[in-house]
Structure formats: structure tokens, C-alpha cells
Amino acid sequence: MLSLCHMHARIMDAMARDGPPVMYATWSHPTGMSNDQNSLVSIFLNRVEDSPDRAALLTKRNGEFVETTWRELHVLAFNAARRLVALGVSPGDRVALICENRLEWIVADLAIQLACAVNVPLNVALTLKQVADLIEHSEAKLVFASPAVATDSLRGLLPTECQLIDIRLISEDAYKLEAQASGFKRADDIRQSAVEYWQPDQLTTILYTSGTTGHPKGVMLSQQNLVSNTQSKIAAHQFDDADVRLGVLPLSHIFARTCDWYVTLLTGSRLALAESRLTFFEDCRAVRPTYLNAVPYFYDKCHRELVARGNADTTGALCELLGGRMRCCLSGGAPLSRNLTDFFWRQNVPLVEGFGLTETSPVVCDCTLAAHRPGSVGRPIPGVEVRLTGDGELLTRGPHVMLGYFKDQQATDDVIRDDWLYTGDLAEIDDDGFISIVGRKKELIITAGGQNVSPVYLESLLNSDPWVLQSMVVGDRRNFLAALIAPDFGMLRQEIGNDATADSDLVGRPCVHEEFEKRIASALADVARYEQVRKFVLLTEPFSVQNDEITTKGSLRRAVVAAHFADEIEGMYNV
């Protein structure tokens, strides 16, 4: 198998050629949807009928995991759906859902679909202004929010016609008894309406993802997108109803929603929702999961924990750390380091990697226990087609590809052409169909936590400060963002006085560094926590055309800048 360096070189060579042939690689097995499995609502109703008293969810209550059966989930979801209908939610209306992982998130997702509405999940890491902007863009009629978000501050930012509901209401015992309340439909009416309403191509959810301009785009996914991708994921891995998953990723992201929640729904297995990142190891011991979907951050956390305990080389230590029953760990959302993969396999805990996008529901390809290769993100899952363009960009088509971007036809047309989705990722496919991602055409940082970040947008905010002449945000595959800042020394001296000190001495002053900390924090006050710049280096010279660091029109040559300042960048992460 070619090394990543050799693969990258071959991709670059291909990009330099004129009129190269298009490369195809298809590993597809069409996945159809039977009449009783063509919507998540139908699947849920069948699940309740087949195994009503089987545990579906495990969630923390007073420090202990408590089971919720499919029957109990059914009662909660139908009562919440009645409440939505009573509050005026009609078929096709958008309902925003902003909440950390908890029982109520699952109940709300089911209730929104039972009410024939569109779920718009938002990340709790967003600022209130970002939340309000996305709610306004989605034209949501109602918002389910966790207590920390359902505040007067958010209410004041929302359109007057948008209702804000504390999500805790949908699981309170008193609320379960409101079936006879005024305005509620009978359960049979809701059930029949939902079953008839949901067709394969019906818009089901809108998920907002960062674009290269920094303006989030609303990815529209249908029932077919979600159900087919879940079915294909199950077929690829041969999951069954005996599995227990520990959900550590936010359900507002499609990775967790499809691969944790909907896989649980379709297989009738169990999903335990971790209380938080801080309780990860404690929760593993309590629920003893058999499968884990996570981003590289969590697998790196496992390695660091064992190193700290001094037993990283002890056979069985990793399996014990993860509860003792782990059959397989699956990684996505960000590139996985080879060293980490090798460590897990040496510890007899298989760790395999996959690849996908929000726009693909999300899984395009996966390594599995039966078919995996180091450095590869696997083969396409059943029903998914892939191919490479002449310049090495990975394209995909099939029932997993989104309907488009909400209220943005131009952006949709830019990425979907002749039914093929252009991923923006450079890849190579070997003779056995295994895919390796070797780079990205689009300017987008993916952190070690799997968060998509637009550096261009953050840089525009930083550069708006008069003390900042230029900036470059870094953090791809890292645990946090950092930045190279070229100060505007003219403005800096104007504010602190006409100082004759050399530029290198000036940026070394603690008071100057502290002032830049404040200015960076102010410039990024309205972005999410994972978009904050935690460390920075002040440069003594700006990026220049002469040094090939910027183009003649002022665009950053990121690879060149990163190479020129490699020591400074590494220094920010090695402290």
C-alpha cells in the first residue's frame, strides 16, 4: 500500500496534468426500503410493537444509569407530539432543538417527526446570537431548548411568533398525563397522519454546517437519506440487537444521530448517553459498551489516560478502561493518526476509521472488522457509489446524498452536479476499493474533536481589529485553535505612544500580549467555544508576496505560511 506521502504526490501530479481521465471506483449494493421500513416513524412504531418492554435507552439520573423501554419512549414521544400539535405546529413546520445529550433529545426527535415537522438540531456550543440567527434562518415555529439555553436572553433574540419551550417539560410525570388536555389529537390520529405523511423524499431535518465563508449552510436530509444510510451502516458492520453503544458525541451532529441513535432504533439494541466528556471512563465502566462511535479526541484521551496510569503497555488495560466488552471502536469526523490506530490494535481493541459528511447523512465509507487497512477510511458502504475526478477529488452519489442546502440553490448547484456530490476532499482508491483521504480542496479546519471550522471567517473577524494587520488560524487535527498574528505596528504605536523600541522587542512586552488577548477575545465574542483562538504568536513581519506567503490579490498561501512558521505553530501546541 502506498504511503500517504506517495499518495499525496500522485494526486498532485494528477492535478498538474491537462485533461486527465476520470477515475471510477464503485462498490455499491442498492439498499431498498420496504413499505413498513420507509420512514423512521414506521420503524419506531414497529419497534414498539415488537419489543415494547425491551430497554432502548440508558440515561443518567441522580448519578446512576436508568433504563427507558421502547414502550415508555412511545408514551413520552406521543404526548410530546400532541403538545406540538396543540401549540400550532403543522406538517412541514420547522422545530428547532437545542439541547445536550439526554433522554429529552431523543423524545423530541421522535415527537417532531410524529407531528410531521422538520427537526432543526443546533449545537449547545453555539452562542445565543448564533442560535438566534440559525433559528431565524430556518424559520422555526417553535424551539425546544435545555434549561441553560431556554432563557429570557434567548427569548429576547427570537422572532415574536417563535415559541420557546423548556425541553424538561416533555419528560415530567405530570406532563405524561395530559393526553386528555384541550386541543390534543388522539394518539391514533397522530400515528396515522405521520405514517401517511412521511415519504422517502420528504424533508426531515435541517442541519447547519460551517462553510468556507463562515456562513453556516442548512443541509436538508430526507427520510430516505437517514434510513438508507442507517441500513447500509448496519449491513456493513453486521450490528445486532445485543449491542450496547455509549453515545459521547452530540446528537445535534449527524454522526451520532445516524450511527448511534438511528442504528439503535433500527436494530433494537441499546444506547447509553454519556453524562459528559468528563465522565467518559466512569460511564464506560457502568454500561460496558460493545461499540463506540467517537472522534479522535476520545481515542487520544484513552491513550493519555493509560500513559498517566503507567500501564499503556499492559495487555488488556485498554479493554478494561472501556468497560471490558468493547468489540470495536469506530472513528470519524477528523483524521485519525496511525500511531493511535496501532496502539488500539496492539491492545486488542480494534479501532477502525470511516469517512463522511453532513451532506451524505453522513457515512460514505467505512473500515470494518472484516475489511480494514491502516491509513484507509474503508470501502463505500452498501448503496453508495464513489469516483475520483481527474484532479483527485472524491465524488459520491446514492440515496445518502442530501436534498440540498436550505434556501441556497446556488450553493447546492456548486456541490451537486449530475447527481454527484463533490466532497472537496482529495482521495486515492486502491485496487481493492479502499479509500484514503490525502487532503482537502476546500479551506476548512476539522479539529481533533470533529468540529468544522472556517478559518477564513475567523480571520475576517480578527483582521477587523485595528491592531491586527493579518492573521492565519490553524488547528487542523488539533484539540484547539491557534493563530499567527501580524500586528499593524503603526496602529499599535499610535495607541501606546511613539515608541522607538524594535518591533521584536515590542511584541515581547507582556502588556502588549495581554492587550492582544483582550482584542482577540472581543473579535471572537460571538462565535462558538470550539471556534475560539486559545493561543497565538505575534509576528514581527507581515505575510508577503515576496515570500510567497500571499497571492497578489492578498489570499493566504496556507501551506507556505505553515511551513515558514512551523516552529512557532508547534510551539503553541507543545507547551
Please state the second-level CATH architecture of the largest domain: 3-Layer(aba) Sandwich
Mean pLDDT: 88
Structural class: alpha/beta
Label the overall shape: globular
- Overall domain count: 3
Give an overview of the whole structure:
It is a single chain. By secondary structure, the protein is α/β, with parallel strands linked by helices. The chain has three domains: 4-30 and 234-446, ANL, N-terminal domain (Rossmann fold), CATH 3.40.50.12780; 35-198, Rossmann fold, CATH 3.40.50.980; 454-573, GMP Synthetase, Chain A, domain 3. It has 21 helices and 27 strands. The strands form seven sheets. Strands 1, 17, 18, 20, 21 and 22 form a six-stranded antiparallel beta sheet that branches. Strand 4 (94-98), helix 4 and strand 5 form a beta-alpha-beta unit. The longest helix has 17 residues, at 70-86. The radius of gyration is 25 Å and the shape is globular. It starts with a helix and ends with a helix. Residues 1-35 and 173-185 have low confidence and may be disordered.
